[in-house]
Design goal:
41% helix, 8-stranded mixed barrel, 6-stranded antiparallel β-sheet, 24% strand, 1003 residues, single chain, 34 helices, globular, alpha+beta
């Protein structure tokens, strides 16, 4: 086109005839002179211009910018800005804009068009010319590109792998793409570079290399699979993060056309949340909720560990049984009994140390001290006995045993328990009044205590009581009561006493006590119904009302009862049940299956007895849609019918449980792995044959996860989370195929759980192990250090110095990070004041997390820290981390404007990656953009990186912001980057992150 004189009308008409069907506008623009030559135009009055400042002025002068849809006007003007175009050409770019989509007014309607701007390879004598064209975009193209953009929001990398021709294409998202953005290279070479170059976490390298090899994938898909998924740790932004890679064959995949797509997405945050939940579950599974001492699980774990030790060392064992606990519960209530237990536990913890003490049952505590000399143990016991004897009544009876070596803890415990009972006998001998007091309680119909209002209450023991207690123990939400009408003494289930805070199991004139707990608006209903029953006008008492529990909360209860009679016809007992609708029983009311609590008990019992078990968890996909379309009543009928089908399939080989939502579990110690697969296929077929009641049935799509446990060592929470993990993988990755939990997957998680648990404790323990390092920020022109970025580090004797990328993303999700974040700011500003003694105009950059900004106390915390450290706010710059960019823009803007008013500077960290989008520049009060180091790595050879860095720096300067390029590693890169005109540099060329003392030596 450059060789044709466009001034000749003949050639212009020929070009128009050839290109008119493909373009709605085509023009040439000389960016040096401003000359504009229109070749094709939808505008009848289009003309050539001798001088224009940019292409968009054509529309501004002839048709108004309203020819472009309002949503794309600003971006359109930016794309066509001649200063911007010229800068890109000078940087070596030729495809200035490719496939920029916007809506152009054509007639009365807007239609999508695609705009290209291409620069001629060499300038002419009269200047540099560019070709500017717009062509219509088909609907199919729009849908395809929208799909690609949608995928790139989720996946960090997308590859097209052609194994047949040994080609790997790297596809990058976005609608502005250049030819340089599609790279071709051998897939084997790519995998080799990735695994050798440190991109993959060392422990995962062999697995990734094996599973993502062409040979493995070809064999895998040859077996009929339609997707392959692998999770591993990969370096992203200089830190290792968990990612998931999926490989999917193309629709026309065959022997002579082996092509598949490979997608990689960041799943680090999802894993962090899972780890956090798992950590809390494991922590609380070994702690007694009331006393905070170790529980029976922790005690059993210690016993097993001692039994496995080859070198059996000395053990000191103390068996403690709490005196008078039942008396305290019956006379003063269970709340006072709990306080009594807490005081005993505190006494033990103070004397022997919290880690040595365990509560193994309601009133039994044990103390185990390993590797202690006999003399030291005896001295400790002597001091303990003095503490107990000083009290008016001994709170515990105890037996103490020391062994130089024993086969098991159980044998030592049996001997200590025997000595404890001897001590209890001595206690009764020393305090006979206690024994007499307890004997009185065994007499029927004799008051042994009073309520808070002075009303006496009674005890009445015997065979009837034992039957009553056995029945009451079968349920948690149904409270049994039995009122002796001759004495007006009522016995209540122990669970009712505990839940409602009743004065005891035996209450005199219970109606007075009970009515006080009924909601005032419901008392009249209760009194009316109970009167009808006792007057003989009603046979059964059946009424619903609200009751206040011991927490002060009202729950809905249904009370049902009736009067039994003696042989002579006189009334004898008023008996009944109070159903608490606010408490979950062991049976699910919708499906009549065992519920989630019973599922946990089942696992716990099998673990305790060291029994093999098989678990198959099944979920119903899209069950919410059933509820929305047909209503919750119909949804419940589907669940009930499906539960019946599950029970019929299992028969007597196992138990069926309903978990949360539309999830179920089949547990058995009889099924093999293959048999579980057959059960799942059978259930799938039943679900497809329609499930439902009341004449309407629908097919269900299922997903399933399985686990075979064979004494590998775990607790119920680990088992449940492993089953849930397999279930979710079936749902998310395998289209409902049965997935079995692979123990390998969890090995690294367990180590990481231990790491996170330790970090969490260190934060709570006055930031133990945390320290600050600082990396210089240098002036790009002089190379002089003008600021520093504060970077958190953590060191522990067990884990060493842990890279921040391992724990910072997880910690930022933690509520405790608010306190840690404040500590970071205070420490950085305190150290900054030291540096300001040398450089008064020195700036300190501190990273801020979303957890901090979301906390309502963060504003005041920053103000308080500034006052405390006396650090001038105008020399503080806060950097927004990745999660901040996901926050509500209006909220984030409001918070940042507050800090700007204080004089604090705002920077967007890692701009150009993750969620650092252009709309942040238009909405937020920004002072500085920091170019991510990933764009600088290899920039001398990467044209796209050169263009991107130039664009970000130019954008920052034109908007009045400062810019900082990160990742300046050496002198050669430092010299090269001068051409882009950034304000600051940061990187190893100036220094690695160092402690304060070493930093001051750099100045």
């Amino acid at each position: 086109m450059r060789e044709i004189s466009l001034d000749k009308k003949y050639y212009k008409e020929q070009i128009q005839n050839i290109l008119y069907d493909n373009y709605v506008k085509l023009a040439l623009v000389n960016i040096d002179t401003g000359e504009y030559v229109s070749v094709i135009s939808v505008d009848k009055n289009a003309d050539n211009y001798k001088s224009i400042t940019d292409v968009s002025s054509y529309f501004k002068d002839n048709r108004g910018l309203d020819c472009c849809h309002p949503d794309e006007v600003r971006e359109f003007a930016y794309m066509c800005d001649m200063k911007h175009v010229k800068a890109l050409i000078e940087a070596g770019a030729r495809s200035i804009v490719r496939n920029f989509r916007f809506r152009l007014r054509l007639g009365e309607d807007y239609e999508w068009v695609s705009m290209d701007i291409e620069a001629e390879k060499e300038p002419r004598e009269d200047g540099q010319w560019i070709v500017f064209g717009m062509r219509p975009v088909s609907l199919d193209t729009l849908v395809l590109e929208d799909s690609l953009r949608t995928l790139t929001r989720v996946y960090r990398r997308i590859f097209r792998i052609d194994v047949t021709h040994n080609i790997c294409e790297t596809l990058r998202g976005g609608y502005i793409r250049s030819r340089d953005e599609v790279k071709h290279n051998c897939f084997g070479e790519y995998m080799k570079d990735m695994t050798i170059g440190g991109e993959i976490f060392p422990d995962d390298v062999d697995r990734v290399r094996r599973c993502l090899s062409p040979e493995f994938l070809i064999k895998y898909f040859a077996n009929g699979h339609d997707r392959f998924t692998i999770r591993y740790k990969r370096k992203m932004d200089m830190v290792y993060r968990w990612v998931m890679t999926e490989v999917i064959p193309t629709a026309d995949y065959r022997d002579d056309n082996k092509v598949f797509y490979l997608y990689t997405r960041d799943i680090h945050e999802e894993y962090s949340e899972s780890i956090e939940r798992q950590e809390l579950l494991e922590f609380y599974s070994y702690k007694d909720a009331l006393t905070r001492l170790g529980n029976r699980n922790a005690f059993n774990l210690l016993c097993d560990a001692y039994a496995d030790r080859k070198d059996k060392r000395s053990v000191g064992f103390i068996f403690n049984d709490v005196n008078k606990l039942k008396y305290v519960n019956d006379h003063y209530g269970h709340k006072e009994g709990d306080l009594y237990l807490q005081r005993v536990s505190q006494m033990l913890a103070q004397h022997f140390g919290e880690n040595a003490c365990y509560r193994i049952s309601g009133d039994e505590f044990v103390v185990i001290i390993m590797d202690i000399a006999e003399q030291s143990f005896n001295s400790m016991i002597a001091r303990y006995k003095e503490v107990i004897d000083e009290q008016e009544e001994a709170p515990v009876a105890f037996g103490a045993v020391w062994k130089a070596e024993a086969d098991s803890i159980d044998k030592i415990m049996n001997e200590a328990e025997r000595l404890m009972y001897e001590d209890k006998k001595r206690f009764y001998s020393k305090h006979p009044e206690v024994k007499r007091r307890e004997s009185v309680e065994n007499e029927a119909n004799i008051a042994v205590g009073t309520t808070e209002d002075g009303v006496p209450h009674y005890r009445n023991l015997g065979k009837t009581d034992r039957i009553f207690d056995a029945l009451a123990a079968t349920t948690l939400r149904n409270y049994i009561f039995m009122n002796d009408l001759d004495t007006n003494v009522t016995k209540w289930s122990a669970s009712a006493v505990d839940y409602f805070g009743l004065p005891g199991q035996y209450i005199y004139d219970t109606q007075k006590v009970w009515e006080k707990l009924i909601h005032p608006d419901d008392r009249a209903i209760f009194e009316q119904d109970i009167t009808e029953v006792f007057a003989g006008r009603k046979k059964f008492h059946d009424v619903e009302y609200r009751m206040r529990n011991k927490k002060g909360e009202y729950v809905v209860c249904t009370c049902r009862g009736f009067i039994t009679k003696k042989e002579n016809g006189d009334p004898e007992f008023f008996v009944g049940t109070v159903i608490n609708h606010g408490v979950i029983d062991g049976v699910d009311p919708v499906t009549n299956l065992h519920n989630q609590q019973e599922y946990t008990k089942y696992i716990s019992i099998h673990l305790r007895n060291k029994q093999t078990m098989s678990i198959l968890a099944i979920g119903i996909s899209m069950f919410n849609s059933i509820n929305m379309m047909y209503g919750y009543a119909y949804g419940n009928s589907v669940l009930k019918d499906f539960a019946t089908k599950l029970k019929n399939v299992v028969g007597g080989k196992g138990l069926v449980f309903r978990l949360d939502g539309a999830k179920f579990a089949i547990c058995s110690n009889m099924y093999t792995k293959q048999e579980l697969k057959e059960v799942y296929r059978h259930v799938q077929n039943l679900a497809l044959d329609n499930v439902g009641l009341n004449g309407t049935a629908i097919p269900l799509k299922l997903y399933g996860g399985g686990l075979i446990y064979d004494h590998v060592g775990a607790d119920e929470d680990v088992i449940k989370s492993s089953v849930e993990y397999a279930l979710e993988r079936s749902k998310e990755d395998h289209h409902g195929e049965l997935v079995f939990f692979n123990e390998e997957i969890k090995d690294n998680d367990r180590m990481r759980l231990q790491l996170y648990s330790t970090i969490h404790k260190c934060v709570a323990n006055n930031m133990e192990g945390f320290f600050m390092c600082y990396q210089p920020i240098a002036n790009s022109e002089t190379g002089h250090i003008v600021g520093m970025e504060a970077l958190l580090r953590w060191k522990h004797k067990e884990f060493g110095v842990v890279p921040p990328g391992i724990f910072i993303p997880w910690l930022e999700m933690e509520p405790c990070f608010f306190e840690l974040g404040n500590w970071i700011i205070e420490q950085a500003l305190t150290d900054g004041m030291e540096v300001r003694k040398i450089r008064p105009d020195f700036v300190v950059n501190v990273n801020i997390s979303a957890t901090q900004l979301e906390n309502h106390g963060f504003r005041q915390a920053v103000v308080d820290i500034l006052k405390k450290t006396k650090f001038p706010p105008e020399y503080l710059c806060i950097e927004l981390t990745e999660r901040c960019k996901n926050m509500d823009i209006a909220f984030l803007k409001n918070e940042l404007e507050y800090f700007r008013k204080l004089g604090i500077k705002i920077a967007i960290d890692d701009f150009g990656t993750g969620n650092a989008t252009l709309n942040l520049l238009t909405e937020l009060p920004i002072d500085e953009l920091k170019v991510d180091m990933s764009f600088v790595r290899g920039i001398q050879e990467s044209k796209p990186n050169q263009v991107l860095v130039q664009a970000v720096v130019s954008c920052a300067h034109q908007l009045g912001y400062k810019s900082c390029i990160e990742g300046v590693e050496d002198k050669a890169l430092f010299d090269y980057l001068h051409r882009y005109g950034s304000t600051y540099y940061q990187g190893y060329h100036f220094s690695r992150p160092v402690c304060l003392e070493d930093f001051k030596k750099l100045l």
